[in-house]
Structures are given as C-alpha cells and as structure tokens.
Amino acid sequence: MGNVFVGVVRNGLFQLLFPKSEVVTQLRLTTTGIHHSVPPENGELNLVEYEGSAIAVEGQANRDWIYSASVVDTGDPIVTALVEKVFSTL
What does the alpha-carbon distance between residue 51 and residue 20 come to, in Å, rounded to a whole number? Predict the structure, then answer.
C-alpha cells in the first residue's frame, strides 16, 4: 500500500496540493513499480480525462514521479474548487 496524494490536474500534470512539498509541486504518474527495471515513462498514466479536476492518487513518490500510481478518487467541479481553496491555505 502506498501513500495518498491530493492534487489537481493542470496541463496534463498532477499539481500536488497535499501533502505540501517545498521541492516538488508537479508530478507525473506511472503504473510502473519504483524498483522495476523499466523506465517510468513506459507506464505513464494519461491524465487528459482528469484535466481541471481534483484527484486522489495512491502510490509511492520519488523525485518527479508517483510510482505504482492509481487514481482512487476524483472530484466534480465543486469539490475541485473546495480542494484548491482548502489546500491553498495550509
């Protein structure tokens, strides 16, 4: 089981809102495991369908990627607006 990350998809990238990070704010998602011998690009998730929406992702973060990523929840426009507001004040 991985960690849960919350963010909004903007321009095809996952904009991390929670947990807060001073180093990385944009992440790419891959189904590839963190210790697999194939590059993460081979399993990269296409986030087009989530563009502009808040999503919760489970996986393992390392540098610019969330490995073994799976989208576990999505927000409609009202939830997305609330997520952005709440996490922008933390």
Answer: 21
* Domain range list for the chain: 3-88
Give the N- to C-terminal CA distance of the chain in Å, as an integer.
26
DSSP string, the chain: --EEEEEEEETTEEEEEES--SS--EEEEBSS-TT-SS-GGGGBPP-GGGBT-EEEEEEEEETTEEEEEEEEEE--HHHHHHHHHHHH--
What is the C-alpha separation between 90 and 86, in angstroms, rounded? 7
Q: pLDDT tens-digit profile of 30-73? A: 999 999 999 999 999 999 999 999 999 999 999 899 999 999 99
Bond from prior residue into 40 cis (ω within 30 degrees of 0) = no
